[in-house]
Amino acid sequence: MGVTAASLVLVHLRPVQHIGDAPKMRVLPRETGRPPAGQEGAPFDRRYEIVSRDMERARALVTDEVHQLTVRQDLVSWWLRDQMLIVQFDGMGQPASLHRRLPGLVRLAKAVTGTPAA
């Protein structure tokens, strides 16, 4: 039996705009593989689901830009809690993989905080 080491990338988000009171939330792989009715064609909705106790506020943070960045970065999952963005993706133990993804992860962090991406 093989063992796969999982690592996480944590980014502390400075309190910018609404992030200070952002809901705790997760974007996780969709367990059923079936998106909600009416969203069958959206790549994000086919692959991920948003989990939060405050779904209205969580969905408001996960904009179309965040959808695109999450899919484009091929993330396994990400969480937002206590002003921390926690990201997981395959190949995290390989420096080249992190280096290649870093610009996209910065754009994701800016998109989640509502800060314009540079």
Kindly list the characteristics that best describe this protein.
118 residues; alpha+beta; 34% helix; 4 helices; 5 strands
Report on this structure.
This protein has 118 residues and is of the alpha+beta class. It is 34% helix and 23% strand. It contains 4 helices and 5 strands. It has a 5-stranded antiparallel β-sheet. A hairpin with a 2-residue loop joins β4 and β5. α3 packs antiparallel against α4. The chain starts with 8 loop residues before the first strand and ends in a 5-residue tail after the last helix.
Separation of the first and last Cα atoms: 44 Å
Low-pLDDT ranges: none
- What form results from the Cα inertia axes? globular
Q: Into which percent range does the helicity of residues fall?
A: 25-40%
Number of DSSP helical runs = 4
**What characterizes the major β-sheet?**
5 strands, antiparallel
What is Rg? Answer: 14 Å
Strand content: 15-25%
> What order do the SSEs take from the amino end to the carboxyl end, as H and E?
EEHEHHEEH
Tell me the strand order in the biggest sheet: 1-5-4-2-3
Backbone structural class: alpha+beta
Number of strands: 5
Mean pLDDT: 79
Brief write-up:
The chain has helices at residues 43-47, 55-61, 64-72, 95-113; strands spanning 9-12, 25-29, 48-52, 75-81, 84-89. The protein is an alpha+beta fold.
Strand-helix topology:
Layout: E1 9-12, E2 25-29, H1 43-47, E3 48-52, H2 55-61, H3 64-72, E4 75-81, E5 84-89, H4 95-113
Antiparallel strand pairs: 1-5, 2-3, 2-4, 4-5
Helix pairs in contact: 3-4
